[in-house]
Design a protein that fits this description.
This protein is mostly beta strands and 348 residues long. The protein contains 2 helices and 28 strands. A hairpin with a 5-residue loop joins strand 16 and strand 17.
Amino acid sequence: MDFLMGGYSTVLSLARLDEEDGSIEVVASVETPENASFLAWVPRFSVVYATVESGYGGGESGKIAAYRVKGESLSLMGTVESCGAGPCHIDVDAQAGLLAAANYGGESFIVIRLSEEGELGEQVACGRHEGSSVVKSRQSEPHPHATTFSPDRRYLYVCDLGTDSVMRYATEALAAGRTDAAVAAEVRPGSGPRHLDFSPDGRFAYLVNELSSTVVTYSYTPRDGSLSELQAVSMLPDGFDGESSAAEIQVHPGGEFVYASNRGHDTIAVFSRDGSSGTLEPAGWFDAAGRTPRHFRIDPSGAWCLVANQQSNQVASFRIDPKSGKGTWSGKGVQADAPSCVVFCLLE
């Protein structure tokens, strides 16, 4: 099973997971301009889009890069500026030919037009946020941390760690260059919204908050794109008093579980999910087999999980138990420089 991995380095790699024993080999690598910290794979184009997370401190813009994956090779198709410093997340609406990216250091997000072959085109919208929140060291200004299209692709949600809000934009308006915003959700002050994922049936959304290490469950209303809060649950064990921050969230492809990663506690939290109500129950944790699990991804079959442990410079593989949802480390992995993102890709 093939996957792509990027990180805080100048290398983007195509790798292969052995589904028998969990071993990993790097198949191909390509040099990147800087920090390919987040990736989005689009099978329709056989293209992986990568953030070029740069521009912090200098008032410069980061970039978005596109790489064609063909056989066992990666080739750069082109780059465009991201309309702000520190692009850190990408999502793509392949049907509409739109790519959206969040600029953590630029207080902004960008929407870019894609060609029919997946090439990066013109900027169609650049939205800027305003505001702050209570954790002055992290929330003195806006920090968009993720751009996520709704399952029906009618809306784009921008998680803003700096303002403790999730903003909603109509995709049709963005495509026309309009950035009229609405607040889709406001979280408890100091929570720090980071990433958002939807259930397979599109009825519920799950938000991971970096600063409070919590997961919030919302019901999703397609008519107006509203998110209605149902519950908030901690990602950490009762009594934990160490330092930890949340990173990634993913709903299991089968919908039975929700996963979120803890950096500091260095675990993947597992929640059982009620398919009818969308609500979660803590189901335990499994050790990340490394330090600072910034990102992880469960394969489309739901059988394997890859964890990118940034500070231990390694991607580890885990077999998922279909009953408990927990992962068991295969004992295998691969070395990588400060890995921060892994995405599975199906290649012909």
